[in-house]
Write a structure and sequence with these properties.
Blueprint (H helix, E strand, L loop, with lengths): L10 E6 L4 H15 L3 E8 L12 H19 L3 E7 L10 H12 L3 E5 L5 E2 L3 E2 L2 H14 L20 E5 L6 E4 L4 H9 L11 H17 L4 E8 L3
Parallel strand pairs: 1-2, 1-4, 2-3, 4-7
Antiparallel strand pairs: 5-6, 7-9, 8-9
The structure holds zinc ion (ZN).
């Protein structure tokens, strides 16, 4: 049975690997929730400095550019706060203490809902397999949500325990809930289009791809435009 998530949480924390990932994965949902008064906090784990085919573009310069693109995109989505943790692009699985870092953010922000990568999704047809940073960020987020953030003897120095109620995982092969983004897709397209370092020169490309994917998910969900997620209900 198709289930649409209608209610917006009060506070959401989205944790993604690269500066463009959240906008691509769930920008429509975040924009919709932000409009209805939800606080939207965004953590980006890596600096994205290796996301180029240009051997002459220095990673530090690309990272700065991507931070600017992220800030611009965040304003379209209506993000309350965004932060780049600054791990080396492509090496997130080597980041010491990533789970503890996420626990500290969770205990500070105290979100009801977290969003992130589905780390179990590896092969998408014959054309794409999931980036290792996406898998690493997804597992770290889940490990941080439960048990670590919820139990006081984990990372005691990171503040009082906090139970996240629900996780929505994007980039999943097994979506089981959808959010109708018919009213917020334009904001998502505007946000995705800010990540110019990751897009072909053709101006309309991002909008076409984003709309086509939202239409596909919309057909599954029975609404014009949607984003699909795997949902985990964790209590709290
Ligand atoms: Zn990415």
């Amino acid at each position: 049975m198709v289930e649409l998530v209608d209610e917006a949480p009060d506070v959401v924390l989205a944790v993604y690997a690269h500066p463009d990932d959240a906008d691509v994965a769930c920008g429509g949902t975040l924009a919709r929730w932000a409009r209805s008064g939800c606080q939207v906090h965004l953590l980006i784990c890596t600096d994205g400095g290796r996301g180029t085919t240009d051997p002459d573009l220095k990673p530090a310069a690309l990272a700065r550019r991507r931070a600017d693109e992220l800030a611009e995109a965040a304003s379209y989505v209506g993000v309350t706060s965004h932060q780049v943790l600054g791990a080396t692009d492509g090496e997130l699985d080597d980041r010491p203490g990533l789970v503890g870092e996420l626990v500290a953010w969770m205990r500070r922000i105290r979100p009801q809902v977290v969003m992130g990568h589905d780390p179990t999704a590896v092969f998408f047809g014959q054309d794409y397999f999931n980036h290792k940073d996406h898998r690493a960020a997804g597992w770290a987020l889940l490990d941080a949500v439960s048990p670590a953030a919820a139990l006081p003897h984990y990372f005691r120095e990171a503040g009082p325990a906090h139970q996240v109620a629900t996780a929505y995982l994007s980039g999943t092969l097994d979506p089981d809930v959808w959010v109708d983004v018919s009213e917020s897709l334009e904001a998502k397209i505007a946000a995705v289009s800010c990540h110019r370092s990751q897009l072909p020169a053709d101006d309309g490309w991002a909008g076409d791809v984003v709309r086509r994917r939202a239409e596909e998910e919309g057909r599954r969900a029975g609404v014009p435009l949607a984003e699909g997620f795997r949902r985990l209900r964790l209590g709290g």
